[in-house]
Structure formats: C-alpha cells, structure tokens
Design goal:
The chain is α/β, with parallel strands linked by helices. Helix 4 links the parallel strand 2 and strand 3. It is built from eight helices and seven strands; from the N terminus they run βαααβαβαβαββαβα. The radius of gyration is 16 Å and the shape is globular.
Length: 230
Amino acid sequence: MGVRGLDRGERAALIINECQNAMINEEFSHNGGLVDEIATRGVLGRIAALADAFRTAGALVVHSTIVLRPDGVGTAMPCLLLAALAKRATCVEGRPDAEIHPELTPHDGDFVLRRVHGLSPFHGTELESVLRQREVRTVVVAGVSTNIGIPGTCLEAVNRGLAAVVPEDCVAGSSREIHDFQLAHIIPLLATVSSAEEVVAALRQQLSPALPGGIDLPRTDPPSHPRTSE
C-alpha cells in the first residue's frame, strides 16, 4: 500500500524543521526533554538517512531554521516560545547554538531557510515560492517539535493547497506523552502519518525507480498510534 500524498507520483520535498543546536543538541539546548527524546528514539539518524534518500531521488531538501538578529529587530515576543528565545539570547546569528546540528549539515543543493520571527517555516519566508518553482505537491515534514512546529508546518502547508506527510520516527516532542498524543489525535487531521521506511519506499517506487534499495534506516520503536497511510 502507498503513502497518501506520495502514491500518485507527486513531486515531494523534505522539510527538516529547526534541527538546530539550541533545540536538540545536549551541548547547547535547554530543552532537556526534547534532547532526550531525540537521542532515545534515534531520530537524527533516520532524518539523515531520509534526507539522503531525497537527494538521491533528485528531490528538494529544506532546512528550516530560526536565527535571530543580534539586535533583536524583527522578532516580536507575543508568546512564551518566542519570548524564551529572546530572553535566553538563543539562536542568535553568529553563535554556534543557532547552527544546524552537525549530524544534519546541509549538502550542496539543499535549501537553507532562515527566519527571524514566527513559528512556521512558511511565515515571512520564500518557502512557498521555492516549492512552487520546484512544482512540489507534497511536503514531508521532519524534525521538531511535535508540540507545535510539526503540526504548525503541516497546517501552513495545507493552507497553501499542499499535502503533508509526517514520518513519525523522524519527529519528536518534549515528552513521549505529548508526542504520542499529537501523533494520535492532532497531526493525522492535517497530514498522513507514516514512517521513514515507507517514505523511502514511496520515493523509490513513485519518484525515482533508480533509487537504490540499500538506504540504511536506523531501527525505530513501533508506533503507539493509528497509522494513516493507505
């Protein structure tokens, strides 16, 4: 069975959301729960393998980041998340915590998207125009977090007439309970919930028959929520 959104040869792009040192690297992050979930479930390795599969298939890989200006211009603080970034001077341009995690260093041909405000890759950025230029119909959303960033990205994609697919083993939340709740009750309303393995299989079958069968995906825990691939 195919993955809805990738089962009719739709052109896809991978969006890796906010996989920056400040968010998921224990050396820099204040998000202890998120760091633990990323490490315990082996999420980074699967995202890296999935990104390699997209590149091999000739599909776009987007790294979405939030990088604040040193003077704070452009970053409002109307919510706790953005206020926390500003208060801690987190993800400020030129500082190592704003950089993408070294396990996911962008490759030539990847698109690195930076914004100074907002909670979605689409907010105030050229992401939509880049996707339209590449004739993308479906976005595969990976990274963090299933609390807000992942469902927010899916919602904004849907608002723009794009389908969204979320490989549940390539995303994480601040706790397993929040992650499981979001994947069981919220994200399936916005996106197809699948796995890295299923997405790679769809890429191989529908987008690039030449994609090698030996893509090495780390093992993952069985999902504890209903699947929405069909």
